[in-house]
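hiii, so i know i said id send this last week but things got crazy w the move. better late than never?? heres the sequnce for the chain we talked about at the cafe, plus the structure i predicted for it. fair warning i was half asleep when i ran it
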Amino acid sequence: MSDAAAPKSNTRSLRWITDPRTWTIILTITFAGLLVYQQSFTPRRYFDAGMKALERNRLEDVKKAVTSLEHIPSFRAHHDYLKGWVELQSGNPKQALELALTAKDHPDIEVDARILAGQASYSMGAAGNAKLHWEDALALQPDSLTAHRWLGALYFDIGAMDNALIHLTTVSRLAPSDYRPDRFMGLINKDYERPEMAIPHYIESLRRAPNQPEADKVWMELAECQIKQHEYDAALKSLSNCPPSVRYSRLMARCYMNTGKLEEARQFAKNALAEQKTDLDTLQLNAEIALIDGDTNTAVELLRQGVALNPFNYGVRTQYAQVLGRLGNKTAYEEQNKIVEDLKVRWQKFSDLQIDAINRPTDAMIRYEIGILAQQLGMPKLAATWYKAALSINPGMGIASQALNSLDVAQREPDGKRVDGTN
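okay and structure toks below
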């Protein structure tokens, strides 16, 4: 650039800077930028960020949102809800409940706050209050997936399985890609001896997630239900998805035994027994095959071992008595048959009480009685589950608490370790 041109250029720059229109443009751009900047840090943005962090279970990010909303009166309810969630995650359910209740009337979070109040109540052992909070949430939003999930879990915990199934069915509908509700419904129906109802749920769960965690276990449970329904070909097809195991061999043997392929049944049954000589179902299976082969002495010895392993099992005790009768051992038969009749009464009462428990979802006493029977029938872990169910309904139920504590002490060895291997 020549020396003559430089002054002209400087003059033009000076005119541009001093031109009022230039400053109008600069101020407009600056103001717009400030608006964008302020908009990115509004209380609503803080709250939305906190909710997203909550959904992802990112505690520290939720805490940041709580801090940002702390001194904004118009977002007090939003702040309290997020802080309540933080308190619950931090092991302070009482504070969480108080905060949730202060936030529950704001339209932005009235459903979420009630769900949080239910979670806090449940963690404090107040199952009845939790149920009311979650039902209130459903009254406001009938398709609240989270509320249905919590109610399904609550009803399962207190042994009200039909109520649990109602909510799990809704969860399955609202979350069509979630394999868990149908897997859970299959298991409930299987445990309550309703294999015909369990089968479609297992199939649906596997359709949604063929590679779900423990898929082989789901296939096994499906096969067991199919065997109970005499669907042996379907069971064999289900078992083709399972790796070899004692349970696998036992189920394969049952399929072959019931379809007349005795040689294959014998081999699978022997394999299962060789791998685990103390498995009650495997002992019974081999005893049944021995009886088919006319080897009564082997059958009675296998069943005797089974009775020794689980003296409260009605099925193995009944088979043992019947085989003793075949052998003509009248005294032993009568002795075992007397025990069988006593077990029959106890197991029938156990079954009846569980049906009553389904129909009486808020009855703590019936759950305590089921726990007592489970304990008498040699099922301490199941007894503990029923005692806990009673306490979830009535946290102040002293006899259930005492029974649970006594059971825990009985399960421990002198060194303080649990007999079942847990700490």
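btw Residues 330-359 form the longest helix (30 residues). thought thatd interest u
miss u guys!!
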